[in-house]
User: What shape does this take?
Amino acid sequence: MELAQKDRPQRLGILLSGRGSNFLAIAESIRAGKLPGVEIAVVISNVADAPGLAAARELGLATAVFESKGRKRAEHDADVAACLRARGVDLVCLAGYMRLLSPEFVAAFPNRILNIHPSLLPAFPGLEAQEQAFAHGVKVAGCTVHFVDEELDHGAIIVQRAIEVLESDDAHSLARRILAEEHIAYSEAIARVASGDWEIRGRRYVKAGNKGTRE
Ligand code: GRF
Assistant: This one.
């Protein structure tokens, strides 16, 4: 799967609903020159007063709000997709976007939507993943950046980062330590995908041309 066109920047469309710390970590990676050839084209939210949106405005980035309340999912998503296209977005990054995407939206950006999830998938998909992991008593926790497909927290995995669960942890400290890993993992995944040097075999994300095992 060749995604990157090396002669022009890869444009990100960030979708968020809340705090926006993952978005800010991506923005900081770009500012620090750690994601060459990558730029943020637009930050979109379904929540008008999302702190992440305010932070995007402060950074002088283009923003848009598409409120979802009372609207059909497909109609709302069509508006978001039109905005992303108008802004020339190559890669859609879900960063705490608290909405399920319609199948039409997913199909409109095949292998071009990334999500970050605060667990080592396929363990603990869905809400409050860190609390689920802590309550389950896992010894290793972490985060996953993956492509988005039609199923929840399910697409091909691009990057995972693991941490040990400490005796001294509670659900909050664990979530905080996982979040620190998320901030590293998302930029790493964007750099890999933007390089274009990859393909998906079965459901495995691998380096392009890697002979590996046959699927
Ligand atoms: C993160 O834990 C992310 O993994 C999950 O939602 C949270 C968003 O946090 N999908 P933030 O808004 O990026 O700070």
